[in-house]
Design brief:
Strand order of the largest sheet: 11-13-12-14-15-16
Membrane topology: Single-pass membrane protein
Protein name: protein disulfide-isomerase
Number of helices: 18
CATH class of the largest domain: Alpha Beta
Radius of gyration: 46 Å
CATH superfamily of the largest domain: Glutaredoxin
Shape: extended
CATH architecture of the largest domain: 3-Layer(aba) Sandwich
Helix content: 55-70%
Catalytic activity: Catalyzes the rearrangement of -S-S- bonds in proteins
GO molecular function, one term: protein disulfide isomerase activity
Main location: endoplasmic reticulum
Largest sheet: 6 strands, mixed
CATH topology of the largest domain: Glutaredoxin
Length: 504
């Protein structure tokens, strides 16, 4: 019985390549049979293999490039008319911006992550300098600017520029403002995933409408959920329904319209843990809550007993004195004092306690070392009631000081990182200015010298003229009496009688 074999259709290029390979194989066999140890076919075999490998690498590179271009799209001025059809995550950049260049590889990772996860968010980038009109419409004022565009709304991203944080932001904002939790299992799962969780409990009500509006406004910062009372654990008891609850710090706290003010303000203040590690970015975000920030400045790389004691006391105040200070204070610790020193334009010792008012750039330092919990509470109360002395601020003097401090810091940082570059950047302009000043001063001195010489020359000429006039005056004095005698004789003759004149 004749077996049927699959027929493989070859394109012309592949058929020719197979025939050449078969011919080379026959030549190689003949070469071996005749005793030759090498032939042209054997010699050329490695080069053909390398060529095939290079072709494979080039094809793979082209494939990867096309994939990268597919996940991150370059946008132009036509984007304005098509953006409403999808949810877009856009990076507005400038080609000369160093931060934009640093973000570029991360941005492609973001695009790949969202594409592989099946997210509906499309990722793009736009040169804000080439399309300045469109970037102005989206409110771009710095580079890079990351925005998620969802319908007519544009959400600014202000978080850390890492792949995970940007992807989490895109997935959170692209979804519904309020997510439903239909079961206890889902509630427990969300509690494990989120350190701070906002939950609306109850049915339709005016409070729910406010909650939805606040969620649409603050979705850039945190998640918002809704559930029925059956989903909550038995340990959670609410004073009334409907209610808005925040779960954090190992407990839960209920929103009270009469004591907590507006729901938006309450959510904005409660979206952080009562105590947390603080860095420069976190401090910037905490400033948007309107709270004062009490910080224990410690050195985590070289922990000491004093650092541990201050950190523990701050944590105890955040937990045990929540009812007293939570409305007005945020608590945490910061590793090192570099950022604080640049912020207050001074030097803060490590370890120490400082309270910052980021709204007006004021800060408060204890007048004496804080050694007990009672002293720390007293210091915080003195800041709260206004008896503590505030330093810093945003007045005109502080602004001028800030400009000088920033200029000094920039110059020092350049010299520390690259002394040669620093000498070139600052030495060359100073050298040019010095030469200009020297030229101006030299020109003024030469003009003064010329004026002095001219005045001296004029004085000498006047002295010479006076010397020439003196002999003339002397000669005139000698000739003067004779002339007077002649004149007198003439006068005498004129006074004589006519008869005398005749006799003469």
């Amino acid at each position: 019985m004749q077996s049927s074999l699959p027929v493989q259709t070859l394109h012309p290029g592949q058929r020719i390549e197979d025939e050449v390979s078969s011919f080379n194989l026959r030549i190689h066999s003949a070469c071996s049979d005749t005793g030759y140890t090498a032939c042209i076919s054997c010699f050329m075999f490695p080069f053909r293999t390398m060529a095939k490998v290079k072709a494979t690498v080039v094809c793979a590179g082209l494939f990867l490039c096309s994939t990268v271009l597919a996940i991150v799209e370059d946008l132009d001025d036509t984007f304005k008319d098509t953006r409403l059809d999808d949810v877009w995550l856009v990076d507005f950049y400038a080609p000369w911006c160093g931060y934009c260049k640093k973000l570029e590889p991360i941005w492609y990772d973001v695009g790949a992550e969202l594409k592989s996860s099946g997210s509906p968010v499309r990722v793009g980038k736009m040169d804000a300098t080439a399309y300045s009109g469109m970037s102005s419409e989206f409110g771009v004022r710095g580079y890079p600017t990351i925005k998620l565009l969802k319908g007519d709304l544009a959400y600014n991203y202000k978080g850390p520029r890492t792949k995970d944080d940007i992807v989490e932001f895109a997935n959170r904002v692209a979804g519904p403002a309020v997510r439903a939790l239909p079961s206890k299992q889902m509630f427990d799962h969300m509690m494990k995933r989120h350190d701070v969780l906002f939950l609306y409990v109850g049915g339709e009500s005016p409070l729910k409408e406010k909650y939805i509006d606040v969620a649409a406004e603050l979705i850039v910062y945190t998640y918002f959920f809704s559930a029925s009372e059956d989903v909550l654990p038995e340990s959670v008891t609410l004073p009334e329904l409907p209610s808005v609850v925040v779960f954090k710090d190992g407990g839960y706290f209920t929103y009270n319209e009469y004591t907590d003010g507006s729901l938006s303000s309450w959510v904005n203040k409660e979206r952080f843990l009562s105590y947390l590690p603080i860095d420069g970015f976190t401090l910037y975000e905490l400033g948007e809550t309107g709270k004062l920030v009490a910080i224990a400045i410690i050195n985590e790389k070289d922990p000491t007993e004093e650092s541990g004691r201050l950190k523990t006391m701050i944590q105890m105040v955040a937990k045990d004195y929540r009812e007293h200070f939570n409305r007005d204070f945020q608590f945490g610790h910061m590793d090192g004092n570099d950022y604080i020193n640049s912020l207050i334009m001074g030097e803060v010792s490590v370890p120490s306690i400082i309270i910052l008012n980021t709204s007006n750039e004021q800060y408060f330092l204890p007048s004496a070392p804080v050694e007990t919990l009672e002293q720390l509470v007293h210091f915080i109360n003195s800041v709260l009631d206004g008896s503590a002395q505030a330093q810093g601020g945003d007045g005109m003097v502080q602004r001028v000081k800030r400009v000088a401090f920033d200029a000094k810091s920039t110059i020092l940082s350049v010299f520390r990182s690259s002394p040669v570059l620093g000498c070139f950047l600052f030495g060359l302009p100073l050298g040019v200015i010095s030469l200009m000043c020297y030229g101006i001063c030299t020109a003024e001195s030469d003009d003064g010298q010329e004026d002095a010489e001219l005045m001296k020359r004029e004085e000498d000429e006047e002295e010479d003229d006076e010397d020439e006039d003196e002999p003339r005056r002397a000669t005139g004095e000698l000739e003067g009496p004779e002339e007077d005698g002649e004149n007198e004789d003439e006068e005498i003759q004129e006074t004589k009688n006519p008869d005398d004149k005749k006799a003469d």
